[in-house]
Transcriptional regulator (Jiangella aurantiaca), 224 residues
Amino acid sequence: MARNRPYTCGLDAAIDVVGGKWKATVLWMLEDQGPLRFGELRRQIPAVTEKMLIQQLRELEADGLVHREAYHQVPPKVEYSLTDYGRTLEVALRPLGEWGHANMARIEATHA
Amino acid sequence: MARNRPYTCGLDAAIDVVGGKWKATVLWMLEDQGPLRFGELRRQIPAVTEKMLIQQLRELEADGLVHREAYHQVPPKVEYSLTDYGRTLEVALRPLGEWGHANMARIEATHA
DNA sequence: CAGTATCCGTTCCGATACTG
DNA sequence: CAGTATCGGAACGGATACTG
């Protein structure tokens, strides 16, 4: 998802980072509930496939927004959490989330 | 672009609406400069093709965010502007735009 | 549990040519 | 000026099966 660089405005850049299909949801979950394991994330986003979830997590990690902590155990355990940088994004995202929440009915009605 | 409904959070819904490749840019232009003609938008977003620009405008119009005013003249003249609803979105988008602006160097460096 | 690997249809998007 | 039409490649994304 490196779409149209160089960016024409900050909004472009931000949406490029957070525009992936499940990224906003993941950021929201991690902010709301603290560190979560792969399986916990998966269960809480019922429609996501493993492939998509891991892909989005990897991209968030590469962007420095999410930290991946692997515990070397059997069975394996991996926890994902927001980085400080990720938290700054989450804060910037909050008004947009509230807008979406407030206008969800309208969005579902008009948006194809 | 109706991606994953029903939405899991307001952020999902909002990004579904504004996540199109050029939509953020268009909203930003219209807020920043007031009503603009098709050709003016096109010139100010050099990388966009006519096809994509009109497609994104149509979707923004269908979502009620942008108003299209056609003047029946020869040669034709069409002006696009934000609706009141569109302005509420633009306000909600502003912190995200500032975040993107502030972190653009980092985004360009880390984001594939 | 936390992933990989592969297949494959769908959607996105750019390029180009044309029109009222 | 402000679009429309068509083509084709690339990226996205779901389903399924498999692994350390």
